[in-house]
Amino acid sequence: MKKLSLLLMAVACLCSGKANAQDGKGSIYFVPYVGVNYSDFSGEFELYAQETTGKVNFMGGALLEFKVADKSAVIADVNYRRLGTKAKERGTFSEPKSPYSLNIEPVEMVISEDKKFTLDYLSFGLQFKQNIIDRLSVRAGFECSYLLSARKYYNWVMYYNPAFDSATGMYTLTPEDRVDDFDFFNGIKSGKDYYEEMDDMSKVCVSVPLGITYEYKNFSLNATYHLPLTNCDSGWDDHIRNQAFDFTIGYRLPLRKI
After folding, report:
1. Phi and psi of 20, rounded to 5°?
2. How far apart are CA 131 and CA 213, in angstroms?
3. Which of 103, 135, 166, 202 has the maximal Cβ count within 10 Å?
4. Cβ(138)–Cβ(132) below 8 Å
5. CB-facing half-sphere around the CA of 216: CA atoms within 13 A
6. Would you call 21 helix, strand, or coil by DSSP?
7. Rounded distance between C-alpha atoms, residue 51 and residue 239, angstroms
């Protein structure tokens, strides 16, 4: 019985050593992943809206993980992400004359109901991963994102003859003055989404991904904050930057185990 116990302990030690060796220095993993990100604009984004609120989008990508030590790894990552924000308040501007009656002024106010700003990126990153406790690791690195497209979605509403208060210098907009269908302004009708390309956005953005990873069996749960280093606009005075958080789940596929 004693000999059998010693034999079982020896086998357990060998199996344990073999399991650890299979995930040691020189091992390579391919990890496809999907998830969601929460993004917003930082800075005073007052060109289109007084205030914004973040939005959530799906994302996906894949990475290669090369273990440079038993508890350390280098990660090469590529992913597609949709960032941007939603407008919380409407931007307003007034037209000096009516297109139907040029001898009356002021007669109208047009409100741009901004809904969301969407920026699509293809991102490439290089990170260093360090295991701190069992199954839990931290990551940090460098990421470069290339802009694929940038659009602004909104609709328009026009008010006829808003009452002007000379004391406050403001217009009073009433539901009775609202016109819900009009097409004189670039063929746009209110109530329907309209979009335009945002050509004044930077083509390349640089950030520092800071993340944490929890691994269970072959699954990998990741939370990452992307610290922006560059502006995402190229011509505005607000100097806005992307603020993004990612939450993803991946599946680790061993390409080589050592």
Report:
1. -65, -40
2. 9
3. 202
4. yes
5. 4
6. helix
7. 15
